[in-house]
Design a protein that fits this description.
CATH class of the largest domain in chain A: Alpha Beta
Number of helices of chain A: 14
Strand order of the largest sheet of chain A: 3-2-1-4-5-6
Oligomer: homodimer
Largest interface: A-B, 58 and 58 residues
Number of strands of chain A: 6
Number of domains of chain A: 2
Largest sheet of chain A: 6 strands, parallel
CATH architecture of the largest domain in chain A: 3-Layer(aba) Sandwich
CATH superfamily of the largest domain in chain A: Nicotinate-nucleotide-dimethylbenzimidazole phosphoribosyltransferase (CobT), large domain
Helix content of chain A: 40-55%
């Protein structure tokens, strides 16, 4: 069982050829991986994949980001072409890159790495009405779940990383985090790609207006997602839910995936048992969301790019945590039992 | 030139297809790598190696560690056999493991991974007299430099990680850090493998006695090393010096390598331009040493094992920092110039 495997991994760490506790957070991480796999030592993940979920946002019309909407589609093309940060880091850690169009506004060329499951070409402005309908939100969740299932069941993927692309998508992320943790918009809203003070004030006001307009009910996570979320946020929640259902660890990236994990946890609390916080984004909402989820990030490198970049950098840490349990000799093996 | 390459890398980061600064500390790290290589973008390190320097310590007779001296030799055998934590993590990040006996007290079996350059079978008790002679310290430095040179010049290694093994070796590490940063032993001395309060008090007292006995002069780093250091500390300083001389980045591990970097920096300040702090050890002296060196650790995972384990975990971060500069498209490439 999961709990038995966690305990077994903890005992094994006490027997390995090292001072007890000296591998620090890798020890607890290894025990968690054993719990996810239901066996100790846990398998060493050898086929990681990042799923980059992309969508556009009606709220961009409020001026919450200086970047044009067209950048979302252009970056999806860049992911497929291999020239984005996520590709460079994926190659470094040996992960494949899968891109999911769940709500991009522009035209996209077909590509083997791109899964087209567009629910609608971007959300509506969440500060003036619901970002999308409940059924649309559900379809976006299922699109993410579908990609995760295909990667794991057909592709042999044994470690998932979630990433996001969508100009203006930290605005719905802040709204989701405020709605699901009850922290006010001033605390959950940050500078995203690097906006100035004036734009930040506007962004906080927009998030506040959205919360006042919808009065989102945390007991209805799908309703919260539809009212103030984004299509890629929904899809990432789906990747998390399916990863957990398949027993595969899911590494979070920054604030967008952190907000999606809040949704996944609200829909199915047990799914959080499979979630690993890859890094701490600079966005203030990230820490609020992770604290709420009880997750401590592995890395803190002042990153705020998204795409899955920070999550991918944690892949070797997860692999190492498992491998140490599998491959290390014990003190007894060395004659010091 | 180095400075020109740093500036070029900074400009390239502003042009890449991402918000400026969004890759956080990977951007500064990439610029540093460009400076080390003297070109931007810098080469992507593809052949990392960890050098685990091993030695024994006369000061163990004072009771500063509960582990028997024989563990040092046994762990060297374990490194060669592939069953130690450093081996598991090296396999995870694709690094080779090279072991250097520069001062182990026990007999060791020959092994292709083991370089025998024993200066003497362990140091003398630094609290009762000099740990070793000046010439012995110099020979240990040269042994480390020799291994580094061979790895880089003959082995094609382009990224070095330094690690340590030696029962009781955090005691000389604390003494070196106190001597070279002028922080008192209470601040630089920690629990090492996990000693109790009583042993910690003894360890602090032993370090204080050593400093009072020798009055080490920070202007004479080799004298400091001989008086209160260790053979593996000396060898690690040699790896750092030779890595820097060959233009290869050197990633530090925990407190022992941090103390050795203080020695290297005191001997040749320019060598620090090639040094990267891989992680922050739990040992309190680690932060003091890194602050003194002006280095910010990449990882903070509550580790305190040594062997090079924490340094190796930073290898993918270093590789990613270079690769991003080499492989990412620019905004102009995507039509947003």
């Amino acid at each position: 069982s999961g709990e038995g495997a966690v305990a077994e991994a903890g005992e094994r760490h006490l027997a390995l050829a090292k001072p007890p506790g000296s591998l620090g957070r890798l020890e607890g991480l290894g025990a968690r991986l054993a719990g996810m796999a239901g066996e100790s030592p846990p398998p060493v993940p050898g086929s990681p994949a990042v799923v980059v979920c992309a969508g556009d946002h009606g709220v961009l019309d409020r001026g919450v980001s200086p970047w044009p909407r067209e950048v979302t589609a252009a970056m999806v093309g860049n992911f497929c072409g291999g020239g984005a940060a996520v590709n460079a880091i994926a190659r470094t850690v040996g992960a494949r890159v899968s891109v999911l169009d769940v709500g991009v506004a522009g035209e996209l060329e077909r590509h083997p790495s791109l899964r087209g499951a567009r629910v609608r070409p971007g959300t509506d402005d969440l500060s003036r009405g619901p970002a999308m309908g409940r059924e649309e939100a559900a379809r976006a969740v299922l699109a993410g779940a579908g990609v995760a299932e295909e990667l794991v069941e057909s592709g042999g993927v044994d470690l998932l990383v979630v990433g996001d692309m969508g100009i203006a998508n930290t605005t719905p992320a802040s709204a989701l985090i405020s709605a699901l943790t009850d922290h006010p918009p001033e605390e959950t809203t940050g500078r995203g790609t690097g906006i100035d003070d004036e734009t930040l004030n506007l962004k906080v006001r927009v998030v506040r207006e959205a919360l006042e307009l919808h009065g989102p009910d945390p007991a209805d996570p799908l309703g919260v997602l539809a009212a103030v979320g984004g299509l890629e946020h929904a899809a990432i929640a789906g990747v998390i839910l399916m990863g957990a259902a398949c027993g595969v660890p899911v590494i979070l990236d920054g604030v967008v995936s952190n907000s999606a994990a809040l949704v996944a946890g609200a829909l199915a609390p047990d799914s959080l048992g499979y979630v690993i916080a890859g890094h701490l984004s600079v966005e203030p909402g990230a820490k609020i969301a992770l604290d709420h989820l009880g997750l401590e990030p592995l890395l803190d490198l002042d990153m705020r790019l998204g795409e899955g970049t920070g999550g991918l950098l944690a892949v070797p840490l997860v692999q190492a945590a498992a491998r140490l349990l599998v491959e290390m000799a014990t003190l007894e093996d060395l004659g010091f039992g």
